[in-house]
Amino acid sequence: MTETLLKVHGVETYYGNIRALAGVDVEVRRGEIVSLIGANGAGKSTLMMTICGSPQARTGTVTFDGQEITRLPTHEIARLRIAQSPEGRRIFPRMTVYENLQMGASLDNLKYFDEDVEKIFALFPRLKERKAQRGGTLSGGEQQMLSIGRALMARPKLLLLDEPSLGLAPLIVKQIFDAIRALNKEQGLTVFLVEQNAFAALKLCDRAYVMVNGRVTMSGTGRELLADPEVRAAYLEGGRH
């Protein structure tokens, strides 16, 4: 059986007195793509942020690559080579594409910088064309490519993607998901994906979880959940993009 890279066990996360996650159990094995689907406000992004240490889980544990990281500050978690492309992209709008990629590079791996930039440009040729352009002037799709590229510059063991298709045209969504698939198949990158486009996410992933009101209510392979009548009724009817 493939080794577990990320294990979230019994995690509860609060915003003040409001419980956003209620005893969440999730596992991501090395080399997998795992999707987390659910309605807006279900707690998906909170789980992503809890893995990265902000906010920290009030109870339960988060373990990465055999080390418990539940109480570590965010910058120390990043140093363990967990990289996140957050919801809303959050690139540096006044910096060029190239400068944004520089900001993502790990200080430990600067000797690979030029090689890594070329890999990003091969994955997203549009970024190469725009490398001297300010991030804020890019289209939404180009900004999403840049956000993913910046995360990849850290040479992550685990890539966290939060709503990568949000607000993008179907053709751009296909390009982004094709790139995620290529990273996984060709480089063996482990990916944990939060996505409202359930159809695309379940087609892409090895396994998936469904989250409702801060709880994981179902899990299975992507194919199993695609075929599940409950999942189809709640997340897939009329939602094929």
Automatic annotation (TrEMBL):
Residues 6-238 form the ABC transporter domain. Gene3D superfamilies: P-loop containing nucleotide triphosphate hydrolases. The keyword Transport applies. GO terms for biological process: L-amino acid transport. This is General L-amino acid ABC transporter ATP-binding protein. PANTHER family: HIGH-AFFINITY BRANCHED-CHAIN AMINO ACID TRANSPORT ATP-BINDING PROTEIN LIVF. Keywords: Amino-acid transport, ATP-binding, Nucleotide-binding, Transport. Belongs to the ABC transporter superfamily. InterPro entries: AAA+_ATPase, ABC_branched_ATPase_LivF/BraG, ABC_transporter-like_ATP-bd, ABC_transporter-like_CS, BCAA_Transport_ATP-bd_LivF, P-loop_NTPase. GO terms for molecular function: ATP binding; ATP hydrolysis activity; branched-chain amino acid transmembrane transporter activity.
